[in-house]
Amino acid sequence: MKTAARAPATPTPATCFRRFLQSDLARRCAGNPHHSLRAYAMHLGVDHSTLSQILRGKRALTATTIEKLGARLDLAPAVVDAYAARERAASLSTHDGEGERRLAADAASVVADPTHSAILELVSLAEFRADSRWIASVLGIDVDEVNVALHRLLRLGLLRMESRERWVDTTGDAIADPGALTAVVLRRLAATLERLGAGELSDHSAMTVALRADRVPEAIARIARFRAELASLFAADARRDDVYRLEIHLFPLTNLRSEPEPADGTTRDAVPDPLERP
Amino acid sequence: MGRPVMQFQILSKDPERAASFYGRLFEWKVDANNALGYRQIKTGAGRGIEGGIWPSPPEGHAFVQLFVEVGDVGAHAARAAELGGRVVIPPQKLPDGDELAICADAEGIPFGLYRAAR
To answer: Which of A41, A179, A212, B40 has its Cβ near the most Cβ atoms within 10 Å?
Structure first.
């Protein structure tokens, strides 16, 4: 789990490369009324429409492009490398966000839904058959439920399909102890997020904790105060050059406090959903 | 040898409904009689690629992904990561003998790497 950033080899630029280009163009235009986007593009050796798209954020900047433009602008190699690294980290914090959310959801599901540990237990049996239909019949669930669980176990690296017949539970003996399984799942989640390249400019952390349910409102109030504190911290800067997203999720992993079924024999599922069409 | 796109896969939150929908719309045949209970789609056209339907979890999205046949699934997964993509599911040997990995490109678009059983 990422908790502390290592010191980067090169100071991280205060702004992204696109902003740097915008500033450089503006400075040149201010110093020379005849300078233009077209002249700047010619100086950089790129098509003016391409440069326009870069400046408007419509085209992604690759490390190769940054190196090429940086060389044209006589930037030091270390500065170019730092801009490229910053672009890469910003890219990761955007497009991997969905993947990270999915992985966190996978981990929560594995911890909360005993289907996953049941599958891992079956894998170790001598009678085990690498067959979703067989697993479904043994567990008394639907094949699709088995396959959704398999997908989660594979994504988190908790299961490995080594051959046609042999699947391997990679959690060791953790499935015998729900607490140990939770710890393994969270370690794998953290390791997977690390492997995905969560960069210096982002932080990802999670914890599973036992609590008294009547303390949850206080926790929610503290989260609200924490968000307000962070907002104040960033609002104090007159000049801001990037946009980040902070997400905090606090939710139950169990159904220990769910309402009992109605005493009249009906189930909650029998209550029609007003949004569901007949 | 080239690396052809061999299959499309529909990730559906309701695989049975998706199978029924496309079966009725295009007269595709869906066969789930295999070890993973995987709904294999036969278009019956004799050209184009065939497909399949896999369940998407409740917290996931419904979408379509493509499977590209490669000679070495592990090597291509590693190469995808080098090029700025990521490996979502490392190479696995499926019960039918096929080898499969799921990766995502630099924009996060998932795709499959696949090698048929020999």
So the answer is: A41
Nearest by CB to residue A155, choosing from B89, B93, B95, is B89
Total number of domains in chain B: 2
| Residues in chain B closer than 8 A to A188 (CB atoms) | none
Answer yes or no: pTM beyond 0.80.
no
- What integer best gives the mean pLDDT of chain A? 76
* Reported ipTM: 0.90
Co-location of B74 and B56 in the same domain: no
Write down which residue in B25, B45, B62 finishes a domain.
B62
Residue of B nearest to A159 (CA): B92
Partnered with residue B30 across adjacent β-strands are B41
Q: Do B92 and A154 touch (CB under 8 A)?
A: yes
**Is a pLDDT exceeding 70 seen at residue A11?**
no
Pick from A36-40, A205-209, B58-62, B103-107: least confident: A205-209
| pLDDT at A95 > cutoff 80 | no
Assign A59 to helix, strand or coil: coil
Closest partner residue to A163 (CB to CB) among B16, B86, B93 is B93
Burial class (CB in 10 A: 0-12, 13-18, 19+), A92: buried
CA distance A187 to chain B (A): 17
**B30 min Cα distance to partner chain A (Å):** 15
- Rounded mean pLDDT of B86-94? 93
Query: Taking a contact as any Cβ pair under 8 Å apart, which residues of chain B between 2 and 21 contact chain A?
Result: 15-16
- A99, A152, A162 ranked by CB distance to B104: nearest: A99
Q: What is the DSSP string of A66-82?
A: HHHHHHHTT--HHHHHH
Give the closest-approach CA distance of A96 to chain B in angstroms. 7
